[in-house]
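Z., the sequence and structure:
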Amino acid sequence: MKKIISIELSDDQCEKLIASIYMAGWITTAHLEDDESGPFNDLEQTILEQFTRQGLTEHTVLNEATGGYSFTEKASEEFDKILEEYDDVTFWEELSTRLAERDVNLMKLSGSEKAEKIMLLADKYDLELEKNGLKNVFIKNK
């Protein structure tokens, strides 16, 4: 059974919704081949179509050739900046945590000791990475 939902959104809420749709699409398709569509493509197309029909075309555009909708170049650039900031923060957090987990897994520790040691080492690695970036990170050749 198909449910139809109608909601009223302020201009600010429209901005946030379209940004959220862009980011959800990016997260769910970044790892796919270029010709694959993600699990949220139908939802994205429905929302972009509604935005375009309502004249909210600052962020959306109809591709006449395919009949599909996409984000404007300006919107993509704006939303990509947000994703780049997220990627940057996530990279450094993941790096310090994964290095700590790697090192702690070599030690013979119990569960609670292990978790505590991971946090301590991750904090230590955070400080090092904040100070020096990747300058002191090396891969050993065997």
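The mean pLDDT is 91. The chain is about 60% helix and 5% strand.

Let me know what you think.
H.
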